[in-house]
Amino acid sequence: MDRLLFTMVGLLTTLFTYAQTYGIQCEDTCNHIHGLDMSHYQQDIWWETLGDNSHMAYVYFKATEGKETQDYTYKRNIDLAHSHGLKVGSYHFYHANVPQHLQLRNFMSQCKPVDQDLIPMIDIETKPKSMSTRQFCDSLMKFLLMIEEAYHQKPLLYTGRNFYNNYLCGKVDDYPLMVAMYSNEEPQLADDRDYIIWQYTGKGRINGVNGYVDKSRLMGKHSLRELRFKPW
Question: Helices H, strands E: what count in the chain?
């Protein structure tokens, strides 16, 4: 028995060392649908190499931020991701103290319906100190309704678990969620809401990208069909 236990411990240690040495990722060991969140921070991407990684099914690209910031890698990356078989979507980083109509105009100048496989995503990570939670949520809801009217479908909301629990809990029940929490344990929201995607690391590695990349996966029985962009 002792010899068997010693052998098992040795085998587990070897596997752990192998994983550390050769960079085994979550998507290498599970059956979930995995994807990426990318922007100019990834710099040059070798799409032919990345596209050969069959574990990645989708990618959300940063299109815009605030009233005028546009990601300069967006157009090139969205075209190349399409050409290598990934389903693509676009996101806007929201600033609650910037006029909504200017943010909408900025996003629409980049996020063209013809380029989209997935519904638009709104990145919600910051609340101005000058705003109360109620003011912040009123500002956000106004913008979400404008996005919905412009694209004829509800956007996906991206936010961190703690940010959701502190500011958004019970306020955005009608919108699908991507929740970020960098942990081995699945996020638990304060209201026990279901969410479609979990962004589980901001330090993922993948062939074709130098440096870190954000990785996510679909939860439970959810599918990309739920996020499909519906042309009008």
Answer: 6, 9
Residue 30 and residue 199 in contact, taking contact as beta carbons nearer than 8 Å: no
> Residue holding tokens 């694209």?
151
pLDDT digits (tens, 9 = 90+) for 70-125: 999 899 888 888 888 889 999 999 999 999 999 999 999 999 999 999 999 999 99
d(CA 225, CA 232): 17
Three-state secondary-structure class, residue 15: helix
Report how far residue 206's alpha carbon sits from residue 213's, in angstroms, rounded to the nearest whole number.
8
Which one, of 90, 31, 26, 50, lies nearest residue 227 by Cα? 90
Asked if the model's pLDDT at residue 24 lies above 50, the reply is: no
Q: How far apart are CA 152 and CA 33, in angstroms?
A: 26
67 neighbors 102 (Cβ within 8 angstroms): yes
Contact between residue 124 and residue 168 where contact means Cβ atoms under 8 Å apart? yes
Residues 6+ apart with CB under 8 A from 123: 62, 91, 92, 93, 94, 158, 159
Total-model pTM: 0.85
Residues 91 and 60: beta-carbon distance below 8 Å = yes
- The DSSP annotation for 158-169 comes to EEEHHHIIIIIT
Q: How high is the mean pLDDT of the chain?
A: 84
End-to-end distance of the chain based on CA atoms, in angstroms? 66
Measure the CA–CA gap between 78 and 73, rounded to whole angstroms.
Answer: 9
From CA 190, how far away is CA 181, in angstroms rounded? Answer: 14
